[in-house]
Design a protein that fits this description.
- Helix content is 34%, strand content 19%.
- It has eleven helices and 13 strands.
- By secondary structure, it is an alpha/beta fold.
- The strands form two sheets. A nine-stranded parallel sheet has the order 1-3-2-4-9-8-5-6-7, sandwiched between helices. It has a four-stranded antiparallel sheet with strand order 10-11-12-13.
- The protein starts with 21 loop residues before the first strand and ends with a helix.
């Protein structure tokens, strides 16, 4: 499969770039276990525009990460890309896919289905594309789909209300009200897909949408995908403008998203190295019961977890992603429904 990749021409890389931690693939045998992050583009024109902006940024600031740029995959089929991505993930390397269509998500989910890998998909989008959602609903190992940033004026509410319980919708107004409440959804997903039309035109010229996420908001979401406890893949849509071209401002925003995603990934690695004994432990006694709940906070990333109650004191319950807001509500004896369901199950 790798021999179908189009390697990066080093002439595309800005001469001022300080990217000593980046390796560019040039046809050699690939060993993904030597890298933390693998970058893959869909087609050459997009790749050139994106790289020009990414490698102007301080990528070397993430010097602790080993980074490989695989070049462009336009000669590969969706099934071949899905198998390549699966190989990257199996080797504990994090693939970042730039400029790929939503249909590739179906191929990746199908590949994971064949490998019996349970997974959740998080879509960052203004609308729900049912042409993509419906085929995924038949995948047994796809446990949940989350849609973040949905806008009511662009969505058929009757259809949204009729969708099954395995699809969760969060409107952009809910994100603005409490970004933390969305965090527990992103921390529970393995695959993330950013449709760049979810960003408003004023912040992202290639978007035709006058409303949507601000640039700072989409960057914050990108960082959270990198730091997500369970994330395995981040994908970003194409952003070709009306002139069938890629403007530098739009490409720069995508580059900044990837830069902050990398920063989030470093935080996740540091959290993984942290023993539970080194987390801040908060115990909440439930009034008029003998039950107590154990919450934990990381001083490195600021993340919160609830420890799953265990019926056997000799077995430590797993840590479930939660938010500070959920902790506060529990302290105030107003346990959120989501946590109550987790405790009850």
């Amino acid at each position: 499969m790798e021999n179908k990749l189009l390697p990066v021409s080093l002439s595309e890389i800005p001469s001022s770039s300080n990217i000593s931690n980046v390796h560019f693939y040039h046809g050699e045998t690939l060993h993904f276990n030597n890298y933390d992050i693998a970058l893959l583009h869909y087609e050459p024109e997009l790749g050139r525009s994106f790289r020009k902006e990414l490698y102007k940024l301080q990528v070397n600031a993430h010097g602790s990460l080993a980074f490989i740029d695989l070049g462009d995959a336009f000669a590969m089929t969706h099934d071949e890309i899905a198998k390549l991505v699966s190989s990257i993930v199996k080797n504990k390397c994090y693939p970042v896919l730039i400029g790929f269509p939503e249909s590739l998500v179906i191929s990746i989910s199908k590949q994971w289905e064949n490998e019996f890998l349970p997974h959740h998909v998080c879509w960052v989008n203004s609308t729900c594309n049912f042409n993509e959602v419906n085929p995924l609903c038949d995948h047994i190992f796809l446990k949940q789909q989350y849609f973040l940033g949905i806008q009511r004026q662009m969505s058929d509410m009757e259809i949204l209300e009729s969708i099954n319980h395995n699809i969760h919708m969060s409107f952009i107004s809910e994100y603005r009200k409490s970004a933390q409440s969305i965090e527990c959804l992103t921390r529970n997903s393995e695959l993330f897909y950013f449709n760049m039309q979810s960003v408003r035109h004023s912040d992202f010229p290639a978007s035709k949408n006058p409303s949507g996420f601000f640039s700072e908001e989409i960057i914050s979401l990108a960082k959270s995908t990198g730091s997500s406890d369970r994330s395995l893949i981040t994908m970003v849509s194409d952003w070709r403008n009306e002139d069938n071209d890629y403007d530098s401002t739009s490409s720069l925003l995508v580059a900044q998203m990837v830069w902050y995603m990398m920063e989030g990934y470093i935080l996740k690695l540091k959290d993984k190295q942290t023993n539970i004994k080194n987390l801040i432990h908060y115990v909440v006694e439930l009034k008029n019961t003998s039950i107590h709940l154990d919450f934990y906070k990381s001083e490195i990333s600021g993340k919160w977890w609830l420890q799953e109650p265990s019926v056997d004191d000799t077995i430590q319950g797993k840590l479930i992603p939660c938010t500070y807001e959920e902790y506060v509500k529990t302290v105030q004896e107003n346990i959120p429904d989501r946590l109550m369901n987790l405790i009850s199950n």
